[in-house]
Amino acid sequence: MQVIVGSGAVGTIIAERLAAAGERVRIVSRSGNGPVHPQVERVAADASDAVALRGAAAGAKVVYNCVNPQYHAWSTDWPPINDALIRAAAANDAVLAITGNLYGYGPGNFGPASPMTEDTPPAATGTKGRVRNAMWRDALNAGIRTFEARASDYISPTSSIIEMALPAMRAGKTAWLPGALDVPHTYTYIGDVAQTLITLATDERAWGRAWHVPSPPPMTGRSLLRTVARVGGLPAPRLRSYPLPAVWAAGLFDKFAKEFREVRYQHVKPFVLDSSRVTATFGLTHTPVDEAVQSVLGSDPSASIASGGSVPSKSTSE
Fold this sequence. Notes:
The protein has helices spanning 9-20, 50-56, 74-91, 127-140, 161-170, 190-201, 221-232, 244-250, 255-263, 276-282, 289-298; strands at 2-5, 25-29, 40-44, 62-65, 95-100, 146-150, 153-155, 174-177, 187-189, 210-212, 238-241. Helices cover 37% and strands 14% of the residues. 46% of the residues are buried. The protein starts with a strand and ends in a 20-residue tail after the last helix. It is an alpha/beta fold.
């Protein structure tokens, strides 16, 4: 039995791929949602409730942390969730596979000549980065088998630059974005995040370490969205970047915009990831960008997006 906690995009892809491979899967979320498949059991439970989660994870060989609390509530919501996940893995002698990100590295000179690697010190100065670093330390110190797969901003239908821009692009309008449009940035396809977690969960070489998800060479936000337009048969996008005062002003009434201030550094100067180690060790490679974009567009992101041109709120996937 493989147990996935969180029924958002990453958790759903993992569940679908494991089920297609014949694995028994249990997907746990507060809502009880998840893919409909004979091999998938859907369970409703609160991931912050250690007793409930331990029961929901009974019999697990692997527990996947695919939870994503509300962006503004990481400091309060993540600690009990992480503790419950560690306890659930320990009770079942299961591997804890953690969906990670790059917040823990903090600000730095992460251009193409000096990208983030797995050896980059965890130097976060903001709340969200410090929370993620504490989570990783707690997992390492818990005496369980665990690893973290760290990805950059997603090539994904949700919680991504594509989600922000696509409605305006489809309407032939200018898409306004909160970051710089022409600095090198690593983007990671969400399908590669799922595959990395699946592959490393059963390979003891991965345990006890953090790994970077295979990602394509850095591109700019403008070049990614031009690829989206080309692959999707849309006109060349008209893109503008919000000035800093507008971002700060938006934070007065929008919780996500307020929290974005803390990590804006990731989007206004080069932010590049080196994922060569996971390729050299496990043979994993990134999905070609055109193929990744085609997959994202095929999932019909417009079905969940009402309008474009504004900073979206990040919602939970737990």
